[in-house]
Amino acid sequence: MPYVVGVSSGIFAAIPEAERIQFASLAKKAEYCITKGVEFVQIDLESVAEFKTPDIKPEMERIKRMGITFGIHSETKAFGVEVAELDSSIETDYKFGHERLREILEKSGEIGCKYVLIHSSESEPFLFLERHLQPSALVDFFGNPLREFLERHSFLIEWLIGGKEEEVSNRIFDEWTKKGKAITGIDIEKAAGSQDYLWRDLIGYSFGEIMRSEIEKIRGSAEIQSRKKYEDFTSEDRKNLDELIKTSIPVDLKSWLSRFLETIQSRSLHYGPERIAYYFTAKLMELNKDPLWENIVKSSIEYFAKDEKKTTEEWLSSRGIKSLSIDDENFRKYSYLWVPAVSAKYIWGHLNQEKNPTKKLYLNLKEPIKKYQMPLVLETPMAHRGIEEWLRLPNPIQMYYLAKAVNEEAGFECLALAMDFEHMISIRLEPEKVIDVLPEEAGKYVRVLHVGYPAPIAPAHIPIPFGSEQQLYLYKMMYKLRQKGFGKNNSEFFIVFERGGGADPIQQSVLALREIVKFLERDTPFDKLPPEFYGLATGQIASWERQLTTIREHAREPLKGLITTPEEEHGFLGKAALEKGKRQDEWKKEELR
């Protein structure tokens, strides 16, 4: 049976004090499923310290002997944990996040977990970085200093300033000779071809304005020394000034470039320096035609176009996007098209340290994954109100291309996906459209589903009423996903109801999910589900036949009291029963058995 129905354990922090002893360890959390009609539990890990529980290994072996299997939902900000995200380009976050995930993977494997699940990204949204102070010590997607990365890829430095230093210096000087004192920062920007937004975001001024200011200093100094205004310079004065400016431009350019490179390795605080690392990584991916870049950008555009019922060409035109390049200002502005590709590249770097050109001592995350045959699972993240659509890696379509790339390179199932329909709706993704855009094989990468009453306000975790419209909606989503491979091989696919609060947080959810699984395995189309799917099977108390019989038998009740013959109330058999001494309440009970 490829589908495994389970429930989540819930977290210690959200449990009433009287019940907390039941959630005081991983083993206690795992026991939660015993009375819920399932044999799989997703244990919510609130702290890596939980792996230090005394006798944790024998306790988890005891759980397995009870026939219970389990996976780990790793730490997340949704649990109130300060987590370092894998797509961060801040050096401290990269190192801390990598080492902590390695420990969680190793410890989870030791106790026999089926998978370790993390949210794909809960990093500060890219568009909001400009208002957040961060240390400027940046790293590339392998965790190496960004300055070293740029020095290894010198063409990115040339892209930053507009070309080779000598060529850029000459173009700036030529512009000076044309405009003289009237030269502006914009004039210099156009002449140099530099990426001014990078300079503004890190230094605070555009490259053109920086170089214009340096030229202005030289001109002002010449005026002071000659005691003349620039307009009164003789041809000899101007010639001397031009020579001085021509000599100074390359020196100033080199000096400011050095300052830029020093800043991206400093510990000083700047507003959102992560943006700089993302821009450079995006340009490298674009130039290298990185499959992650091309597939994620293309599929993101396809999804948003489908969402607005437009062709991709119409959608791009409506946004003024002429080129899928970071150099296109409008493309760059719609960061939700390209930031997911860079976010995915950073996660890819964490999982491919053996490809790190500097051979840094970051531990290999794939080793425990392969050793314990326990995939790392990326889940659709959850966002706070107001930033629903701005998460860095929100869409399962984008995660699919990352998982596909990682697994094909690794040669085994290293990375898998978890889809949470509630999370998707809450971050303004329509699950049905997401599934429609997913490639035909993508369903086999979705190893975990988090399901519940599909509510747009997360975390809701509301139970699924048996026989409800919500049960039908979930079936439809799973059926469409099954057509793309979900549950169609010998792997285990986990369908997990994530519990909420209340006296009975599960209610009928497990019954509803078991009914879904039964018809999924029969490949029953969602528009051809029989009454049995809703709990209305032939012969049962709620069946169509019995309900129709009851309706017929009670059809004349509005006439009760107006017609006095006993047959109207009891029927002919009922009348005979009453005449034999059977009480009326006994007859009524037996009639419905």
Write the layout of secondary structure elements.
Layout: E1 3-8, H1 26-30, E2 40-44, H2 56-65, E3 69-73, H3 91-110, E4 116-119, E5 133-135, H4 146-152, H5 154-161, H6 165-179, H7 185-192, H8 196-202, H9 207-226, H10 235-263, E6 269-271, H11 274-287, H12 291-307, H13 312-318, H14 329-333, H15 339-350, H16 366-371, E7 376-379, H17 396-410, E8 415-420, H18 421-426, H19 431-437, E9 446-451, H20 469-482, E10 493-497, H21 509-521, H22 544-553, H23 567-579, H24 584-591
Parallel strand pairs: 1-2, 1-10, 2-3, 3-4, 4-7, 7-8, 8-9, 9-10
Antiparallel strand pairs: 5-6
Helix pairs in contact: 6-7, 6-10, 7-9, 9-10, 11-15, 12-13, 12-15, 12-17, 15-17, 20-21
Can you give me a brief rundown of this structure?
The chain has 593 residues and is of the alpha/beta class. The protein is built from 24 helices and 10 strands.
Largest sheet: 8 strands, parallel, barrel
- Distance N to C terminus: 35 Å
Q: How confident is the prediction overall: mean pLDDT? A: 89
CATH class of the largest domain: Alpha Beta
Count of strand segments: 10
Shape: elongated
Please state how the strands of the largest beta sheet are arranged side by side.
Answer: 1-2-3-4-7-8-9-10
Range of helix content = 40-55%
Identify low-pLDDT runs: none
The helix tally amounts to 24
Q: Which structural class should the secondary elements be placed in?
A: alpha/beta
Fourth CATH level, the homologous superfamily of the largest domain: Divalent-metal-dependent TIM barrel enzymes
Rg calculated over all Cα atoms: 33 Å
Q: What is the total number of structural domains? A: 3
What is the name of the CATH architecture of the largest domain? Alpha-Beta Barrel
